[in-house]
Amino acid sequence: MKVTLFATCLVDLFQSNVGKATVELLERLGCEIDFPESQICCGQPAYNSGYTKDSKEAMKKMIRTFADAEHIVTPSGSCAAMFKEYPVLFQGDVEWEKKAISLAEKTYELTQFIVDVLKVTDVGATFKGKATYHTSCHMTRLLKVKEAPSILLSHVKGLEMTPLPDAQNCCGFGGTFSVKMGDISGQMVEEKVCNIQDTGADFLIGGDSGCLMNIGGRIQRKGEPIQVLHIAEVLNGM
Amino acid sequence: MAMKTSSAKFKERVDEGLHNDFMRMAVSSAQERLHGRRLTAVDELGNWEDWRSLGQEIRQHVLANLDFYLHQLAENVSKRGGLVFFAETAEEASGYIKDVIVNKKAKKIVKSKSMVTEEINLNAALEAIGLDVVETDLGEYILQVDDHDPPSHIVAPALHKNKEQIREVFKEKLGYTQTEKPEELTAHVRGILRKDFLSADVGITGCNFAIAETGSIGLVTNEGNADLVTALPKTQITVMGMERLVPTFDEFEVLVSLLTRSAVGQRLTSYITALTGPRDEGDVDGPEEFHLVIVDNGRSSILGTEFQSVLQCIRCAACINVCPVYRQVGGHSYGSIYPGPIGAVLSPLLGGYDDFKELPYASTLCAACTEACPVKIPLHDLLRKHREVIVEKEKMAPFSEKMAMKAFGIGAASPMLYKFGSKMVPSAMSPFKTGDSISKGPGPLKSWTESREFPAPGKESFRDWFKNREKGGNPS
Fold first, then answer.
1. The pairing of beta strand B433-434 with beta strand B437-438
2. Residues B405 and B282 in one domain
3. Which of chain B's residues have a Cβ under 8 Å away from the Cβ of A190?
4. Mapping DSSP to helix (H, G, I), strand (E, B) and coil, where does residue B111 land?
5. Percent of chain B's residues with pLDDT above 90
6. Looking at the complex, does the CB of residue A214 fall below 8 Å from at least one CB of chain B?
7. Which residues of B87-113 are buried (b: 16+ CB within 10 A; e: fewer)?
8. What domains does chain A contain, in order, with CATH numbers?
9. Is residue B152 predicted with pLDDT exceeding 70?
10. For residue B444, what are the CA distances in angstroms to A42, B457, B469?
């Protein structure tokens, strides 16, 4: 199956390991990966800050970039949800609305794609350790992908999953919120990290790089021996 | 209490909230209790999503036909001998109520819980002319006794106080001598309020939902105080926001069920009362005179705008009870009688951006509010829309942010610029690096690195890795 990868800007710049793991995992599952170089950012930072007009230029760029893709797959619930929002933004725009709808329809978050399109629930991964999972808000509430990550993780050999208390609460990232309201954000991530510590897990797994940067940054600051991993890295474990 | 509850700056209010450990503990434990109870009550009803859709449909239908239903309500209240007053502003509403009370030569007023009377600053207006105004909802009473401490939650206004603090307030203000046991505290207040109910000349209530078809007023409480407020005084004045009505008792039933389950996780509250007009011949109790004050105060200017859905709100506070930001900062940080996500949407609309422009940013847009709302208000999206208005219409965004976003818009639309920029990032960041991360960030990153590390950009971007790999380079 042909897959066009939307890597996201955070993965491109800060977490290239996540991108690599995504490519290797999908190839192992029989996909042929294409990465159009003209892709940039989905526009969410500007859009969520109220700069709708400025964000639309980035969005048009992305629509053009992925116009010929069959399946667009991204290792981020939040960025996938942003693509799904494009049709609302271009509603009534004769030139762009149809293209936005077509983009949204073929966009999948990584675990969603594996479970719903590839129809695979066991990717054949092995990963030894005790881990807990952070359900990111945009993946669960906006994209409504709630089961796929845990289904895939439940089949990873050697992996022991333990539930995270107050998992439904946001980690405090929120894009520009994390710098605009840094003190509130700091308290939110502190509570999240305390809950992670309470589970006794050695690994925190998540599906969104923004949340993982936030939670990971706090864990690192506290000097906790908990390793933060993107779900693509775990599913790529052999 | 007017809408604005504090003259301190937003940052100062938040700082105070973040440092109030007791309040934060009270809020997080209340959130957990209410969250669990709400989920149980929702599961028990079954088909929750269908109920939410029905709730949304009812509220949208009413808003789309608001003129019709308001007319119908007013006609039916009049037919039953009640008097209806439409107030365009807070001052008009307070003024009318004051006139009624002065004409009655009344001295003592008992009130049941009402957010709209807080919004129009009614108590202050009445106290200014020497009237004795007594709040009879226990939470509101505690705040009133404590020198008019502002509410921090729309359903549980004294959520930020614990029983020990309440005992201290009562000791100082009421000469209370017993323990901090809730039963003893409540019994003491009950003794005082009983006398107030019996001696009051006027009773003032809010209104959960008015029923247009019958001209009735629906009141939902757990303490039964609203029933005494409406049964004993000779004059009753009910104050309602102009959008708080339903066509018939059928819709009333649906919305009350959504309200009690979402607000406190109860199937029903202890008291649900529908009152129609003043005392009829042969009635043993009820007021001789009934006034319905319907308050606009900025609501009609929300109709027809992209914010109209906020008027669907039934004031259940489910959004507040799940909000992770409210959890950390508490209600007073919002500086409005309407805190939490609903407050962050509503306060700038009713009170203006000058006082409340920070509130739409006090959210991670995590959408927990949207998911919890029993009438499907897209709260997180309305918060984002506020930001859009602040940036694009009000032009209130900070200059540095505007420049950054302009640069983002240009950079993100041009792959060449993006590539150039992203190549610059690692070297631009390198002076701040310690090991593989940044502990003290420059500019806006400073606020991030107060509490956490920021990752240093990798040596090789993903796109470079992919390109090398395609060329047959090192697949590391």
1. antiparallel
2. no
3. 451
4. strand
5. 82
6. yes
7. beebebbbebbbebbeeeebebbbbbb
8. 2-116 (3.40.50), 121-235 (3.40.50.11810)
9. yes
10. 21, 16, 35
Among A137, A179, A183, the residue with its CB nearest the CB of B366 is A137
Give the pLDDT confidence score for residue B405 in this predicted structure.
80
Name the helix (H) or strand (E) containing A127.
Answer: strand A126-134
Least CB–CB distance from A217: residue in B361, B371, B454: B454
B383 phi/psi in degrees, rounded to 5: -65, -40
Q: How far is CA B175 from the centre of its chain?
A: 33
User: Which structural domain, as residue segments, surrounds residue B417?
Assistant: 399-470
At A4-53, the pLDDT tens digits run 999 999 999 899 999 999 999 999 999 999 999 999 899 999 999 999 99
The residue from B260, B295, B330 where one domain ends is: B295
CATH of the domain at B253: 3.40.50.10420
B361 and A177 within 8 Å at the Cβ level: the answer is yes
Contact: B457, A172; criterion CB under 8 Å:
no
pLDDT in tens, B432-450: 777 778 888 887 788 999 9
**What are the structure tokens assigned to A48, written together?**
């969520």
**If you write DSSP's letter for every residue of B290-356 in order, what string do you get?**
EEEEEE-TTSTTTTTSTTGGGGG-----HHHHH-HHHHHH-GGGG-BSS-HHHHHHHHHHHH-HHHH
What SS3 state is found at B278? coil
Nearest Cα to Cα of residue A174 among A8, A16, A74, A49: A49
Residue B5 lies in a domain: no
* Total domain count, chain B: 2
CB B278 within 8 A of CB B288: yes
The order of strands in the sheet holding B245-246 is: B245-246, B209-211, B216-221, B271-276
Within 8 A of B467 by CB-CB distance, chain A residues are: 37
Half-sphere exposure of residue A10: CA atoms within 13 angstroms, side-chain side: 23
**For residue B455, which of A123, A98, A209 has the smallest C-alpha distance?**
A209
Predicted ipTM of the assembly: 0.96
Q: Under an 8 A CB cutoff, do B453 and A190 touch?
A: no
- Decide: A108 and A76 in contact? Cβ < 8 Å: no
Distance from CA of B459 to the nearest CA of A (A): 9
User: Which stretches in chain A have pLDDT values below 50?
Assistant: none
| Nearest-neighbour CA in chain B from A203: distance (Å) | 18
**Position B443 in a domain:** yes
Counting every residue written for chain A, the total comes to: 238
- Output the six-digit token pair for B419: 């590539």
How far from chain centre, in Å, is Cα B442?
Answer: 36
| Residue at a domain's end among B278, B295, B312 | B295
Residue B136 lies in a domain: yes
**Which pLDDT band, with edges at 50, 70 and 90, does B1 fall under?**
low
- Sequence-distant (6+) residues with CB within 8 A of B383 are B341, B344, B345, B360, B363, B365
- Give the pLDDT of residue B431: 72
The minimum CA-CA distance between B24 and chain A, rounded to whole Å, is: 11
**If contacts are CB pairs under 8 Å, which of residues 123-142 in chain A contact chain B?**
137-138, 141-142
Shared domain check, B257 and B406: no
Domain-located, residue B328: no
Dig out the tokens for B382 from the structure: 């309305």
